[in-house]
Amino acid sequence: MSNALMTARDAFLAQHPETRVNLDGRDWGLIDTGESAGKDAEVFLFLPGTLGRADVFFHQIAALAPHRRVLAVSYPSSGGVREWAEGLTTLLDQLGIAKVALLGSSLGGYLAQYFAAKDPARVTHLFAANTLHSVEGADQRPPYSSDLWAAPIDELRAGFAMGMNAWKAAHPDHAEMVDFLLTEAAGRIPEAELRARLDAIKTGPELPALANTAASATTIETLDDPLIPPAMRDAVRARNAPAKGFRFMWGGHFPYLLRPELYSNLLLARLGLAELSGDWQEVDGVCQA
């Protein structure tokens, strides 16, 4: 079955393939667009959620690459938020990169907040997107309440499929996106890596206080996100204050796939690389579109 998202992603990977890099003894995936604007140009780093490899942000990487060097990672098969934050520091050191703007979505958003809180001098702009403010209590809810390293992988993958197919039934116009992500859950993300991603949420550390300013941080959320409830969205904004908040009125948990042009423009605008486009209106201090 034809899937335009997969076709576009594969065309992107033909130009920017994922390579492997060893960071502190762990095997990571890395997309690196290279030094398109000189060695001293700013760098942008993407951190995916549970159901994405580095290339899940292919729309946004393509939009940013003409302006700056872009990195995106796929997580290793061991470790968690603390170890991955250390691995990101090692990656930047190995590449000779002093500072980055970074965006993390969902699991990646938690990691991004942790990294920015632990090493604020290294982060020029933090984008915390469709993410959590705390993992407290996560170990009491499925699938995290299971032994994630011993539970049958088919059961874990079936859980993702159930949730995604329920979204597909309710939003048949999003079927292409759902099918795209189901290939990730079904095996494009290897078993050990998928288990590690789930365990990273279950065992995640408390987030230290952030040093954001209104100009150096942005929160992104979606009104119809089935995984991040309203109270959690409010808490993410509170933790990241005085970051500027943006809310997509629709787009589920994956607005970067469902509304890619508006999402990419938002990133460019917050970095001072473009004018903000789209019908954004401020409501209770949050810009909505």
Task: Give the uncertain stretches in residue-range form.
Answer: none
Total of domains: 1
Strand order of the largest sheet: 1-2-4-3-5-6-7-8-10-9
Beta fraction: 15-25%
Corresponding CATH superfamily: Alpha/Beta hydrolase fold, catalytic domain
**Oligomeric category:** single chain
| Continuous helix count | 10
CATH top-level class: Alpha Beta
- Give the tally of β-strands: 10
Helix content: 40-55%
CATH names the topology as Rossmann fold
User: What pattern of helices and strands is seen along the backbone?
Assistant: HEEEHEHEHEHHHEHEHHEE
Rounded to an integer in angstroms, the radius of gyration calculated over CA atoms is: 18 Å
Mean pLDDT value = 96
- Largest sheet features: 10 strands, mixed
C-alpha end-to-end distance: 32 Å
Instruction: Please identify, by name, the CATH architecture.
Output: 3-Layer(aba) Sandwich
Global geometry: globular
Q: Helix- and strand-based class?
A: alpha/beta
Subcellular location: Cytoplasm
Protein name: Maspardin
Keywords: Cytoplasm
Domain AB hydrolase-1: 43-162
Structure explained in plain terms:
The protein is α/β, with parallel strands linked by helices. The protein has one domain (7-135, 205-288): 3-Layer(aba) Sandwich (Rossmann fold), CATH 3.40.50. The protein is built from ten helices and ten strands. The protein has a ten-stranded mixed sheet with strand order 1-2-4-3-5-6-7-8-10-9. α3 packs across α4. The two termini are 32 Å apart.
